[in-house]
Amino acid sequence: MGAAAPEEDNRAMATTVTAARTGTFAWEGRRLAFEEHGEGDRVLLYLHGILMDSEMNRGLATALAERGHRVVLLDLLGHGRSDKPTHASEYRMDTYALQVAACLDHLGIEEAVIGGVSLGANVSLQVAVRAPSRVTALVLEMPVLEWAVPAAAMLFTPLVLGLHYARPVFRAVAAAAARFPTTPIAALNSAVRGFSVPPDSMASVLHGVLVGPVAPSTDERGQIKAPALVIAHKRDLIHPFSDAENLAEQLPDAELLPARNAAELRLFPERLTDEIATFLDRV
After folding, report:
1. Residue ranges of the domains in the chain?
2. Which residues touch 275 (CB under 8 Å, ≥6 apart)?
3. Amino acid 19: pLDDT
4. N or C: which end of the chain has fewer CB within 10 A?
């Protein structure tokens, strides 16, 4: 799929990183990339959505760092500057949770607020179930749970089939995405960069996420003691408001924060950023 060479990709990424410390660490023979914003012991580790990368959350990280928080943005395996193997078994949600714990270990962080958007929200729930002692609280933006399954299957299954059987088309898309100029909109840059991933790696990510455990069971969610902020919006088949509403009821200590739309935190972030900062200050 005609992706940009790694060194070219790294240069493109570097041009968009401002006031951040970037680094990598080894996990299970793979290289994972991260960036840090801010200083101190009040840590939020925030995760991107599927096929996206850390840039989509960089505005939030910068704003929270200015308020005294240390924000870590991790590129999960198969995303951003991290390695992109072609084995679907490496992209399970529970495996991603292990990568989050490994990132905390690498940075010498015992406990942090864990959060993310979409894929990142589901991975955060897995961390809370599998490593509860590492989780101070949760920020769960647009989780993908039971009511989203039919829509997710309708979207991702044809995409996986297309990646397997129409590689020339996706190679052409990737080549165009690799040449797409950087824009002032971080989330758009992140989405475009996701389409420059080689088709075998992209198919493996989607396949692994679909066949593995998408989220903890309702019983497991009921055992999560960490306070949680659940952010959601209406009119979204992949991230239905009902999933977020049910999750806020299932978690023992959770509050629901309605967003006006999917883009609010990325394009008009002031209101939601204030709410997130208030939650972080409290926990």
Report:
1. 6-282
2. 229, 257
3. 65
4. C
Q: What is the mean pLDDT of residues 192-202?
A: 86
Per-residue model confidence (pLDDT) at position 176: 85
End-to-end CA distance of the chain: 44
Contact predicate 119/209, CB 8 Å: yes
Structure tokens at 90: 């490496």
Fold of the domain spanning 6-282: Rossmann fold (3.40.50)
pTM: 0.88
CB-based contact 265:231 (threshold 8 Å): yes
Please give the C-alpha separations between residue 169 and each of 64, 77, 230, in angstroms, as whole numbers: 40, 24, 38
Q: What angle do CA 46, 28, 2 make, to 5 degrees?
A: 75
| pLDDT tens figures, 145-154 | 988 877 877 7
Q: Is 131 in contact with 97 (CB distance < 8 Å)?
A: yes
